[in-house]
Amino acid sequence: MVRDLNTAIVIVLDNARPQLEPVREEFHAQEVAAGIPLHVTLLYPFAPPDRVDEEALADFFAGYDAFTLTLRGLATWPQVVYAVPEPRDHLLAMMHALIAKYPEYPPYEGEIAEPEPHATLSELEPGESLEAIAAGIRARTESLFPIQCEIRDGALLQEHEPDRWRERRRFPLRA
Questions:
Q1: Please, what is the angle between helix 130-141 and helix 17-27, to 10°?
Q2: 117-161, pLDDT tens digit by residue?
Q3: Which of 68, 93, 153, 154 falls between 20 and 30 A from 14, CA-CA?
Q4: SS3 string of 137-170?
């Protein structure tokens, strides 16, 4: 059975990519190979690619001011090691506004009731140790934090074939 292709609404962390993409390539290679840039997810999965209203997304992002996001350090969930972005409350407000605007697309298909803002650095494969992966990432990154990112836009990522993604469009925030 062929599944539908997805989209995602994200904030791409352009300023942090030079420091953290090599870490992701080592510890999260499948996502990097799939074409997914370092980002904070605002809503995933989103609409099928042919049903995205880009003008509505442009209006949404135009309602928010540009801001500085800071990656403060590392944290873990079961099976995930991620960089912690701040301002958390601002990111949560954007996430909740999108969830309210698009209730037909619950975050993570409803599997996570209250998504936490995060920038995934590794998602564990079966049999991998969270402690070992986190220690490896910590050793590679602890001298890098904090990392500041100037956020001037949101982005729509699109799966163009199964497990292959690209950036479809950026939506400017208010200057």
A1: 150
A2: 999 999 998 899 999 999 999 999 999 999 999 999 999 999 999
A3: 93
A4: HHHHHCCCCCEEEEECEEEEEEEEECCEEEEEEE
Which residue is it, tokens 């799939």?
34
Residue of 174, 175, 165 lying closest to 10 (CA atoms):
165
Three-state SS string over 13-82 comes to CHHHHHHHHHHHHHHCHHHHHCCCCCEEEEECCCCCHHHCCHHHHHHHHHCCECEEEEEEEEEEECCEEE
SS3 94: helix
**For residue 86, which of 55, 53, 119 has the smallest C-alpha distance?**
119
- Decide if pLDDT at 2 tops 80: no
For the chain, give the number of residues: 175
Residue type at 106?
P
What is the C-alpha separation between 2 and 42, in angstroms, rounded? 26
What is the number of alpha carbons within 13 Å of residue 30 lying toward its C-beta?
6
* 1 pLDDT higher than 60: no
CB of 160 closer than 8 Å to CB of 166: yes
Residues 6 or more apart whose Cβ sits within 8 Å of residue 32: 21, 24, 25
